[in-house]
Amino acid sequence: MLNHCFLCRNEDLKEMLESSKESLKLEAMKRIVGLIAKGKNASELFPAVVKNVASKNIELKKLVYVYLVRYAEEQQDLALLSISTFQRALKDPNQLIRASALRVLSSIRVPIIVPIMMLSIKEASTDLSPYVRKTAAHAIQKLYSLDPDQKEHLIEVIEKLLKDKSTLVAGSVVMAFEEVCPDRIDLIHKNYRKLCNLLVDVEEWGQVVIIHMLTRYARTQFVSPWREDAVFDENSEKAFYDSEEERRVEQSKPYIMDPDHRLLLRNTKPLLQSRNTAVVMAVSQLYWHLAPTHELSIITKSLVRLLRSHREVQYIVLQNIATMSIQRKGMFEPFMKSFYVRSTDATHIKTLKLEILTNLANEANISTILREFQTYVKSQDKAFAAATIQAIGRCATNISEVTDTCLNGLVLLLSNRDETVVAESVVVIKKLLQTQPSQHSDIIKHMAKLFDNITVSMARASILWLMGEYCEHVPKIAPDVLRKMAKTFTSEEDIVKLQTVNLAAKLYLTNSKQTKLLTQYILNLGKYDQSYDIRDRTRFIRQLIVPNEKSGALSKYARRILMAPKPAPVLQSAFKDRDRFQLGTLSHSLNSQANGYLELSDWPAVAPDQSVRIVEVVEPVKEAGAPVFGKSKPGKSDEKFYSDSEEEEEEEEEGSSSEDSSSSSSEESESESESEENSDDSNKSSSSQSDSEKKKKTLKNKKLQQQKPDSKDRTKFFLMHIVLSFSNQFVASCRCSLLCLYVFLVCQFDTISWDVRVSLQASSPVFVPETSRELLHRMTGKGLSAQYRFTRQPCIYGNSMVSLQLTLSNSSDQALENIHISEKSSTGQNIHRFNAIERLEPQASVTVSMGVDFNDSTQAANFQLCTKEDEFSVSIQPAVGELLLPITMSEADFTKEQIYNKITKTLKLNLNEIPCGLSVWLANDRLGTGNLFKNNNLLKCYKYLNI
Amino acid sequence: MPVLDITLKDNALIMIHSLFLINNAGDLFLEKHWKSVISRSVCDYFFEAREKAVEPDNVPPVIRTPHHYLINIYREKIFFVSVIQTEVPPLFVIEFLHRVAETFQDYFGECSESTIKDNVVIVYELLEEMLDNGFPLATESNILKELIRPPTILRSMVNTITGSSNVGETLPTGQLSTIPWRRAGVKYTNNEAYFDVVEEIDAILDKSGTTVFAEIQGVIDACVKLSGMPDLTLSFMNPRLLDDVSFHPCVRYKRWESERVISFVPPDGNFQLMSYHISAQNLVAIPVYVKQNISFFETGSSGRLDITVGPKQTMGKTVEGLVVTVHMPKVVLSANLNATQGTYNYDPVTKILVWDIGKLNPQKLPNLKGSLSLQSGAPKPEENPSLNIDLKIQQLAISGLKVNRLDMYGEKYKPFKGVKYVTKAGKFQVRT
Questions:
Q1: Is A390 helix (H, G, I), strand (E, B) or coil?
Q2: Are A418 and A386 in contact (CB under 8 A)?
Q3: Closest among A758, A846, A760, A848 to A797, alpha carbons compared
Q4: Mean pLDDT by 10 residues, chain A (947 residues)
Q5: Choosing a second label site near A837 at 20 to 30 A (CA), which of A139, A508, A599, B155?
Q6: Does A201 touch chain B (CB under 8 A)?
């Protein structure tokens, strides 16, 4: 019925569109736009709407454009009808019409018009109107996303537009550059100085893009200003208004900043005063990544100013300040009070401010900060109060003078009425005690007394661990706590149970007389627990501590293993490792690499050739800083009004001929700079970054060497076999298989670093193999050959699908027609087929993508590849690794996940490079560990190793 | 000719892919896509985060989903949720979304669900002009108004009858010049320029009334209606006061750097010329003091409240629009109070006590006194609630900033000029 009504209404709209009255048509279009805005489907009106594309009424036309852009993709054939109108409009004398025609033409995502788009873009890029040229720059990106094969031609257009003198075009063309060819840094050389000089006059959004691009550029072209031997005069802030003499003075010093480097810093500085928060942030990150350390302080004020802005802006800015404040406390210390929390702040803002205050804490200001924290602990926002307690813990470990004060304060909080506050205090006290054990047995006793009243499982687990770890300090209380736990064991949370088992084991080893029976009892309870983690742990502990003939050598060392001195956890900022990302980026905000993130390169050790940026004729740089508008300004013509850089633009035309040679030389020096030479770099961040990178690289190489495709598979199957046999045994007789597994895993872990994200979001793979495998040989395929390759990208057809790339080639001497995958699939897998290929010419090949849902199994997907005449049965057998999703997790998240930090080695493991044994182990459901796609068990298996 | 299955490069660098507008109740009432359509089911991740956050203010601005990133802002009870696919500076998107909201406000008087729904066609036309392929195109209000005329009652009536349009037919002149914020050919019979210096005091005072933290945030709002292409210069008596400034793009940075004057060609109409900051280092005058005593009793589930407000450093001016807001702890059920001046209101649902005092009379200080009744059996609240103060002082810039003169070049006529000062409380909080 409803459907019927809807149809009626559409009929009625159709009628209106076909009427001769403009006003009716307009009314109809307005209603259609309303439908689109609500997300309703109006695609069936396409034929009626498209007729009006040539209308004289501008508003009607615009609304038709809106409609076209929305539906052209779905109705490609009909959309073609409108193309000629746009082509005609591209020649219109009115620049607005030319521009909007290009905008719409390039927004219609119909592959068949790619050549027309290419032609129009080329034409528009030489248009007299800068507005049309700007539109052309935008169109470049659209065409590139529609057909990446046009890249080379588009780069030519970009090159041309980069030379454009109009401020209107600059932002848009750099945007196109960033998307199409961000690696073609050689295109920037000649335009570098022009871009720096134009920057102030470019519109705000363009400024952001240009600044980000120039940051990357500068990091490849200039040497680091952070060298130790660079002695800067601290009070030479005037260096910014840099006149020539000053530069000469600088030259006598050991480090000489490239004048172009200085130009960039000087020309971006005024933008710190922009009203646009994105611009201010962009300049701040530029200074952070490029400016000499002593000049950094000028960005502080501007960043603090942004804290007055909207809640969302505050959030991002605070995140960035948090990262900065770890490395340079001094920058923000004078503004400490700006980070004081207000009761009206949103929780995430409060937590970030707290983070920053903690980072800023030092001997001098700690008393002020602690006083401030006292107010926060009482906050009604309990999540925030808990975070404050964590922060106090961090201050206590970092500043030894206040450790005792903090500890006492936290002990006082134990009598707080609020459960979360008490629980959090317990957890933090536990960590603090670990840093300085022994002398605090009275605190442990006090916590034991509290134990009955605490219900938060994390806190209970913490107390139990403390009891076990320091049971020698509290010999009387610990067995009693165990006795109580034996009573309530079955109703506890998992982490509490695990810690009870630990406590029992430790007491058994130190005080077996009193606790032998209790331990036996608890181990028996654990043996039949519902959770496999607890069952596993119980079996493991039993084998370890209760000597019997099978457990062999290990139980001799049980005491040494369990009672080994554990290093104290390091309480550090959650923002510790964020500096691996460029500030101000989405990746920094998320603390994980976002799609399309371009890493900032390290400074080159030796500066590449500077002369590449020289534009012929006189050096323009020197005048740039000086011009000051006199009061007689209005005498000048409008165009030159705001821009003070017209002079140097004329020189851009020449000099592109030498570009090729210079670019190649610069590339060479770039690669040189990648060598280890710069490890003596004084700056911590860059050296540590490069260190970790190096580590990663060597690791990767090792892996690659170890696992050549073939041997990889073999090892995999071999290991799978072992693990499977383990598990069979395990089910049958649960002997010490887990122990073996444990030892096996520890061996694995020792050699690997581990990097897993808590939320288990897919990340982009570190390594995608280029090799493809044979699907169909040309002999069997009667000329048709097919190869496949796993792209390791999230599949666009469905979350559970694995994305595959298929290359089909025709090696016969006649064209093959109608290549497709047959509808019927012999096995149960769900396959997303590629669109049928109508015709494949001899010697031609085509690449298509498809998705297969392997149901998380390694069972081969069998299907029929058909041509017009033949059918070929083919099958794709996935390796287990291809079914897994790569995930990344920051070190901070990772340590957070650790309850008891006993294995100190930083485990970093990238799932793409996961050792086969482990991945098999994880993917294998029979072991009961669940599988990686669904839950956090990977983490659990790590915790599992926390004895 | 073979039709190839071209794999679309899915991770194209599109800044803003789609925009969804969602109201406070969780209804998605408008969607706009600048590229291929993204199913609105992507918003489920947002709804999930929204639910977890309880308060709309606590929704994280950046949300990660398996294939997209959602960056959202919350304004005027509307969530603007944008869908991002690749790396982009998050502030870029946030700033843009706020710009969109401001444009709606500018066009329709207010930015609310009903006005957006009523003007859906204009909203769509605006969004189309503001972003091209996900990259901001025209965000300057002066330009937009030339491209798409704001609705007025008269015009909408005329339009329905004659079928004429809201869309401008020529390219706005500003778009092409180096002064994109000003349209050409402006003409007024009365040429006038008004400047409002508005200062807000942000402060945290502790229990005893000592200043924990205080700073002044100022803005200069301008309303300039001048014909032609005027070039204005605004100078201050005491520009050194200004600690940190940010400007409308029309202001020439270099003049400010060298001469500390503000030189600019103004946009036509209302705009914010600059904002500035006077930091805690300088002594900030606190115009009022608050004597308060809020206590909760261990037994009897009740509490007492006693607040008195008095003038402190008002520079001889009257404090007006005085309002005290208290976010009470959850256990406070009702308040039985007596105000010597003004009215009070306690909302038992939001737990907010508002005492609207009005003008502060130094001879007879306003006082609010009485008892609070608490939920019986609940433990007494740990923390006393802090007080938020709102106030207004006319004809005073609390920092002492003074405009010296305004000069105009480039045009012959004599404009009418005016400057107004006002001081307000910003985030002014008294801890108890």
A1: helix
A2: no
A3: A848
A4: 54 83 86 88 85 81 86 84 86 84 86 89 89 90 87 91 87 89 87 90 90 91 73 41 44 70 91 91 93 88 88 94 89 88 88 92 89 86 87 86 84 78 83 72 80 82 85 83 88 89 88 85 90 89 77 73 76 78 89 83 82 62 37 38 41 39 40 40 42 47 43 43 40 37 40 34 62 79 82 72 82 81 68 79 81 76 81 80 65 51 35 36 34 36 37
A5: A139
A6: yes
CB count within 10 Å of CB A3 equals 7
B348 alpha carbon, distance to own chain's centre: 28
Phi/psi at B293 (nearest 5 deg)? -145, 105
Beta-bridge mates of residue B388: B325, B429
Secondary structure (3-state) at B322: strand
Residues within 8 A of B (CB atoms), A 134-193 only:
135, 138, 141-142, 144-148, 167-168, 172, 175, 178-179
Half-sphere exposure of A170 (CA within 13 A, CB side): 29
pLDDT for A623: 37
Query: CB A584 to CB B277 under 8 A?
Result: no
Query: What is the number of other CB atoms lying within 10 angstroms of the CB of residue A200?
Result: 21
Beta strands in A29-170 (DSSP E): none
Residue A525 CA to residue A519 CA, distance in Å, equals: 10
Task: Show residues of chain A in contact with B121, CB under 8 Å.
Answer: 30, 33-34, 63
Nearest residue of chain B to residue A61 (CA atoms):
B167
Q: Model-level pTM greater than 0.80?
A: no
- pLDDT for position B356: 93
**Is A273's CB within 8 Å of B256's CB?**
yes
Whether B239 has its CB under 8 Å from any CB of chain A: the answer is no
Please tell me the number of Cα atoms within 13 Å of A162 on its side-chain side: 27
Give the mean pLDDT per block of 10 residues along chain B (432 residues): 37 73 91 86 91 87 90 92 90 93 89 90 89 83 79 59 54 58 82 93 86 88 90 89 85 87 89 83 80 82 88 86 89 89 89 91 89 81 83 89 89 90 91 82
- Give dist(CA A353, CA A575) in Å, integer: 12
- The residues in A 583-602 lying below 8 A from B, measured between CB atoms, are 584-587, 589-590, 592, 594-598
Chain A interface mutation, best of B3, B11, B87, highest count of A Cβ atoms under 10 Å: B87
Tell me the CA distances in angstroms from B213 to A370, A436, B87, one per residue in order.
16, 36, 37
- Are B40 and B20 a contacting pair, CB within 8 Å? yes
Cα gap B42→B26, rounded to integer Å: 14
C-beta separation of A39 from B28 below 8 A = yes
On whether the CB atoms of residues B430 and B386 are closer than 8 A, the answer is yes
A896, A902, A906, A909: CA torsion to nearest 10: -80
Chain A within 8 Å of B125 (Cβ-Cβ)? yes
Number of Cβ within a 10 Å radius of residue B258: 13
- B186 and chain A: CB distance < 8 Å anywhere? no
With beta carbons less than 8 A apart as the criterion, state whether A932 and A922 touch. yes
- Compare CB distances from A22 to B10, B163, B330 and report the shortest one's residue: B163
Q: How far is CA A874 from CA A178, A188, A861, in A?
A: 41, 49, 8
